TrEMBL record, chains A, B, C, D:
Gene3D superfamilies: Chorismate synthase AroC. It comes from Cenarchaeum symbiosum (strain A). One of its GO terms (molecular function) is chorismate synthase activity. FMN binds at residues 126-128, 286, 301-305, 328. This is Chorismate synthase.
Length: 363, 363, 363, 363
């Protein structure tokens, strides 16, 4: 497959552009019998929607999802589920000057080489963060499928913004995550993070951060050796989010500095079930789920669009240029990303649950 | 595809088990006309072979590769290239007691749940680090293809072992990497790392570490938005290596704590070519190559097999158990992993070069 | 992939239902730079549209295509091209009684077993001939791509309707095909076929027929041994058309009764180019194109919906039932199918042209 | 995937060449727990082995299969099953003159264009009928899996050789098929077919023929709309057999000349189960199995290698040439093909049984 699709048995195909007519998603492979309406998708889209607080972009994107196939009498039919959001608040003029002047940190330069003068450069086109709405559309369905069929649940939340970092106990519900606009379940830390974002914005700069994601309720044995490991497929999906530059599982990079006796998770029997005492593995051994929570941490680089002068080149004139990115940009996208991470994790886990025969037939 | 294959147009299919008759690889999609002999593969296998120094396992695995299809008159024919290593030095008795007593940190537990009593548990079976020999067999061919067709070159080397860490300037050739048995191009650091490994071994413990990988010479525009980004496909491949728990590109997790103005790489023209001043992006923007070096860092957890008592469970008796892993194990696998990283990076980049039309037809 | 997609490097994903909101298609992998507008697709849709003559169904389906992604400034961008037709003239009441009473010859019965009560049975749902509009949407783009990039051209036409059969010399343009509503380039035979259809309709019955398809202008060597042969991929695509029950290439079934000396096509040099004297191979040897015209014949069974009483079962009551299919059905779909065959052949050939490196990069 | 693999969840990857070191197959996706030994594969290989009678080639190919991975303690483990046959009786000299003189009817010409001077032309290389041994190796495993898990059974047999044709009632076992060396269950017809083959051989010519294949015991609902129909996937697989030029299901091409009232299969209840009175659909409606036998007919062209002078070209000298094919060739391959058809049908049906959740987990 070319690059617009992901998955083996539950396949998401993404289409659309930032400033085109729409962004859309087709999810193929969802079993028949899942109760589904636009509301199930809309609430996750609303979680990532901009314009909700002073720390995100002031663009107003209604982002109303429409299901245009695959649902009949309120349930999935087994046919591909197509969903679409019609674009409305696009202001493409701001991008006119960018056609030959690539913005540092953006896809502009390689895209103009790859697609030539035919590249839809407006708003980043196909490379825009806006395309993560298509991940959410497909992922919201996968999420509901997992919850209904297996009681599997993913919660993702912010643990770092810039240099403000916090260690949190994974929350049991998403409520504390969405109780503040930073999406950090630790309210005090959230306040500090918020301040850091406002300060970066004021200074004409931007910030990145880290999202932690925890998935509970998995059966043992999801994953397909040796190239379809859960880590392989999760990281592959997560790296489709623009700005992601690092993914680690369990003890991750820190674990690389520990010893085997520290990092191994001893097995034990608890309430009659085999589990581990610690969870440095992040719930995955040999690429397979072991039933403990899957824990993943995702690093987002700071937003590339900053209202400062930056050095670049004019590719038409083939000479140096100076650029000050205009438009309405988030000073930090991390608070909008937890639902995107939730969505992609759900897609991958649901796909593996189908591959492994844990979900099959009519629900 | 089930899990044993990876790639779109250059597909590696891995087969075999640690203690079965062989480990093997089929590489499909390599163009006709590449000069190829066993020697081209053997030298990379030799780089990962155990038994070469006191800091790696004392198992003697000759690991002689045989090409059994796809090569005629010393060149590839366009047909799938099958390669095989016949297993020789396997001692399976050490694993007899493990059939119902999963080793902490290993795939034993989820594998016995997934495959039941039919799982080939000997030496980790399909999940063994030995299977990375199949990655190397396919990757060595991809590596030669890339070098011949595009002058693309990957060099991977160790930058951390346990708590000993070093920052190195990427070496121009692999010579300094392979001039010591730690595979760290900084000889002084290598000595300290070596000491750390010996000390861990003496203490009945094990270490992990970090490998850095740098790929140069890429054309601009490799990668397929949005799910076939280079980061997606590279991380997916790398996570097929047992023990890998973290992958980051460019400034990675550290970059998440910086600001946009610090982390963006300004463009400039150098010797008539567009490039960037810094390389915090790791050579990838929007999932596409930009022509600067692709830089990736890979975190390996410490070896799970340690000669210490560990808590586990007897799954047959369903009660706690204590295990002391026997056998001849590496106290640290990281020094053996650079050729595996080289191989997988080469596979992914060569696949994308074919997808992008940069390599096509008869060589 | 689940079943809604076809192709390796040029992938068509189909969505929608006969009586749902729409039918749609996403084509991924089309290179940037192809001039494309709705008109390029609409003319092929018009060729298969019902309601055009007395021998096809009287349903009025405007079938107006909208391109909703992947085109910018009148050219493809390299991004997936999504197209959609909004359904308008659906009358679903006629299908109410069918929910538990499967129509002989239709997918109703296996679909109700496979998808249970969630199956969208209206108008055949996902199995309707209407879905071939999605093949045409994707295929019309592939067709234009092939014509532009390689001067490859497919012409498909009717050679049999019921027992009326004719042998025709492949026409050089599609003009004689579309000069009559039977789509047979032999006008006299077309008149007899038309009469047969009218007679079947009058008698409350239906007819099938045969379509021949000829593709010219191919380079030598398209196709990928051993499972990606042109015959494999063409037949696979063609069998996605409801009603198709036979596919043969070159001398096909008749050739099976001949001898090697009769059936072999001797090579010769003509105008400095190697070609064959006869074309019993249908332009394909060893699964690869040889540069001569690809000839394929496709058998369509008679339309299953007939206004006669037929024996069936009531699956709810689990007892025999008698059914007389209502609704507005074609007495023969074959005259509407040539553009569908054209479309699918174009998709497969274009995909192989991309796989083989004959089309690559920006057009 | 490039062309050497087929399947979605049960994937066969073929490697090797006619005159190389071996032919081999890797089957990935077979569940753990299937009892399997070389014998299970060997008996089907023996059925297709040449040198068994005066009407097939006198080449002696021992064709001893070795299982080199994926089986432990006599059962499949869930890991890929690699099988290999080492080539022994190859005489490549006969092919020396063919390197620049393509044989009519063979892949020689397009292969030399596609792969240039690197093509392994010996014995047809990758395009040889010998490669069907790899289909049989994978298919024999699929066949056993289907029989064990679902009691599904495929029997294929010869119904036409040249102009000798017979209609047979599908046999209940393969015994009457293999009771004569033509593989036709009608002994009298087999004798006439045998005579026709001997006569063709004596006359320095060759014959083709038709194989019918019947698969019983299928559950309802195998197949994935719209591009993963059973007809699509079966025909795709069957067209990987060299010489196949036609595939039809149920009433096929003949059905195209009938009427809807004649061709529709009325439903009825028999022994409490829904089934059809006739089986013109060949057991497939809407691309899905309906539980009645799947019937398919496959047309094989006459063998291309004939010991007669044929016109061809010398591609090096670029001038006409005359060729008399040497070597030991079958005058008719059809009697050796039933196990190949059995194998491919089994592969496709088993793959769909896994996709549909009918086979899953550990056996």
């Amino acid at each position: 497959m070319p690059g617009s699709s992901i998955g083996e048995r539950l396949v998401l195909t993404s289409f659309g552009e930032s400033h085109g007519r729409c962004v859309g998603a087709v999810l193929d492979g969802c079993p028949a019998g899942l109760e589904l309406s636009e509301r199930d998708i809309q609430y996750m889209l609303d979680q990532r929607r901009p314009g909700q607080s002073s720390i995100t972009t002031q663009r107003k994107e209604a982002d109303r999802v429409e299901i245009i196939s695959g649902v009949f009498r309120g349930h999935t039919t087994g046919a591909p589920i197509a969903t679409v959001i019609w674009n409305t608040d696009q202001k493409s003029e701001a991008y006119d000057e960018l056609e030959h002047v690539p913005r540092p940190g953006h896809s502009d330069y390689p895209a103009m080489i790859k697609y030539g003068k035919f590249n839809d450069h407006r708003g980043g086109g196909r490379f825009s963060g806006r395309l993560t709405a298509t991940h959410v559309m497909g992922g919201a369905i996968a999420r509901k499928l997992l919850e209904k069929a297996l009681k599997v649940r993913t919660i993702s939340y912010v643990t770092s913004i810039g240099k403000v970092s916090v260690q949190v106990k994974p929350p049991k519900t998403s409520k504390p995550v969405y109780s503040n606009d930073v999406r950090c379940p630790d309210a005090a830390a959230a306040a500090r993070m918020r301040k850091a974002i406002v300060s970066a914005k004021t200074g004409g700069d931007s910030l990145g951060g880290i999202i932690e994601s925890v998935t509970t309720g998995l059966p043992v044995g999801l994953g397909e050796p040796v190239f379809g490991s859960l880590e392989s497929d999760l990281s592959r999906a997560i790296y489709s989010i623009p700005s992601v530059k690092g993914v680690e599982f369990g003890s991750g990079f820190a674990g690389a500095a520990s010893t085997g006796s520290e990092n191994n998770d001893p097995f034990r029997i608890k309430s009659g079930k085999i589990t581990t005492i610690t969870n440095n593995s992040g719930g995955i051994l040999g690429g397979l789920s072991i039933g403990t929570p899957i824990t993943m941490r995702v690093a987002f680089k700071p937003v590339s669009s900053i209202p400062q002068k930056q050095s670049t080149v004019d590719t038409k004139a083939n000479k140096p240029a100076v650029l000050r990115v205009k438009g309405r940009h988030d000073p930090c996208v991390v608070p909008r990303a937890p639902p995107v991470v939730d969505a992609l994790v759900s897609l991958v886990i649901a796909d593996h649950a189908i591959q492994g025969g844990f979900i099959r037939g009519v629900l």
